[in-house]
Design brief:
By secondary structure, the chain is α/β, with parallel strands linked by helices.
Length: about 190
Amino acid sequence: TRYLKLRGINEETIKFWEIGYCPIGHKRYKKLKGRITFPVKNQNGIIVTITGRKVFDTLPGPKYDMYPFPARKILFGLWQNKKNIREQGRAIVTEGQLDVITAWQKGLKIVTSTFGAHGTLWHLGLLARYAKRLDILYDNDNAGFEGVEGIKKLSTLGDLDIRFQNNIFPKGEDLDSWIKNHSLEELFTLLDQ
């Protein structure tokens, strides 16, 4: 939990999101060893996989790792936030799980993640059940811009209002880092200008 505290994640948030840790010596879940873990639930609350984020840079492998699951059909945080998304008629879509979790802790409970800048037509269709407006808030980098271009090539769904917002933060900042030092009012001012 020391890593999570350094990231500003409190106990209530750890419990709500069921964040765990896979010890380095753990033999059964080799892909997740030495990583903080997040259960990934589909829109019905069923766990479909567990993902892990590297705590130590010295560990081999990618920063995030997970067991195979239908990522093109799942949005991280939709299960936990869909009531608020439906009430507000709006969702913010990010790349990372910590973006969703940090935003939730700050009181912004309309954020979901596509596990990287990989939005699909399935994701858009799923969100269209709950919201009329989507703010795509991918990172302000090459991967984020490529992800936006990929979504722009998808067919639109009805009157879904999709806004591409990945240039509202300074380069190197994402929702996770930015929201810690700014208010929700400041965020909505940027999103709605």
